[in-house]
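We give this protein:

***
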Amino acid sequence: MLALVNDARAAKGCKALVIDDRITTAAQAHSTDMANQNYFSHTSKDGRTFDVRMREAGYPKPGGENIAKGYTTPEQVMQGWMNSTGHRENIENCSFIAMGLGLDTRGNYWTQNFGR
């Protein structure tokens, strides 16, 4: 997934992102939470948003979040995100420097978080 994201960013003149374990922790926890509680939203059922979840995981500068459900491959979810204006803007945001990804295969809940 990182290679797919960085290819799309390069096409827009953005620097490559790096994986940050803290961001990955936040992203994976959100994917797992959505699967466990059977919901699909940027806001957790307890009211937390991506920036709160990322800070709680230790990442100080949250940037954005993409979520998806049902896609079975990184290529499919990436295509879905690139076909969505808001998700594409996150991927192509040159101010972002780091990324983390979560996937829960019980429903294929994807969470992609970005850091500044």
Notes: The beta strands are 18-19, 62-69, 98-104, 109-115.
